[in-house]
Amino acid sequence: MQQEEIEKNSSKNNHKNYTYIVECSDGRLYTGWTNCIEKRLKDHNDGKGAKYTRARRPVKLRYLEILDTKSEAMKREAAIKKLRRSQKQQLIEQGCLEKILLENHISI
Question: 45, 29, 14, 31: which is closest to 108 by C-alpha?
Answer without folding.
Answer: 45
